[in-house]
Design goal:
This protein is mostly helical. A hairpin with a 5-residue loop joins β2 and β3. The protein starts with a helix and ends in a 7-residue tail after the last helix. It is globular and about 65 Å long. The protein is built from 13 helices and 3 strands, in the order αααααααβββαααααα. The protein folds into 2 domains: 90 residues; 173 residues, Intergrase catalytic core (hpI Integrase, Chain A). The chain has a 3-stranded antiparallel sheet with strand order 1-2-3, with no helix packed on it.
Length: 301
Amino acid sequence: MSINGFFMAITHFLEYLSLERKYSKHTIIAYKNDLNSFQIFCNLEFENQDISNVNYPQIRNWIVSLVELGISNRSINRKVSSLKSFYKFLQKINQVQINPLINHQPLKVAKTVQVPFSEKEIVEVFKINEKDDFKSVRNKLIIELFYTTGIRRSELINIKISDVDFNNEIVKILGKRNKERFIPLLKIVQTSIHKYLNYRLKINTKESYLFVTLKGKKVYDTLVYRVINNYFSKVSAKVKKSPHIIRHTFATHLLNEGADLNAVKELLGHSSLASTQIYTHSSLGKIKEIYNQAHPRSQKN
């Protein structure tokens, strides 16, 4: 494959990720950066400008160089995964016969424990006194929706007003790869949405999205993250305070109260049960408590 052919292949690959796989813009940029990084390495180390013509030992040299640069194993695995996906695409369009990464084993990554917020911390965050204005009502609703639906940050940002169905008491969520799911809305959340919408009417905006800024623009990632971090910093000493931790908290609290794992899987929008099972580890404390209370041989006080 020529140099021009290689760049065309990358362009087609990124179009494939965008149009067929429905990957987000940020994910596509990450893929592009990873491939460019490897291309530069091949050019400098092996004077090979065509990454469709490299072998696994050369890829291993790249991986070693990333380790020596102090890049985490998790990040390296992501970069290699990008390259592996690209080779799969090249096979699909008959540009290469063999994927040199077909037998590659990812680097070992230490499991990070995601510590959910406690029920007490959740109660305390909703007790925080705020002004009764657009911004405060919006921010509280953001927290409330995260905790009562378990949705992702990108999913919350992309909720449209038309996605909220008060008659059926549900909200439509557009998940990864444009997969739709419907999540029940508690009465208390519906009340909060109505209150927020009344304030939203006073904002000069033409946006169809539910959550907007004071200037009438669609809310963005860093704004939502700041809302969560600012509020939970007042009630929690945990290091990580993010929308994902609330999602983790949502799943953990449901499982602690006996929710069915499959039901939690559907609410979270997971494609496989294995993704949901990680949350069962956080529920072991509750399981042990129930076990000690119920088993005849336990030492009850």
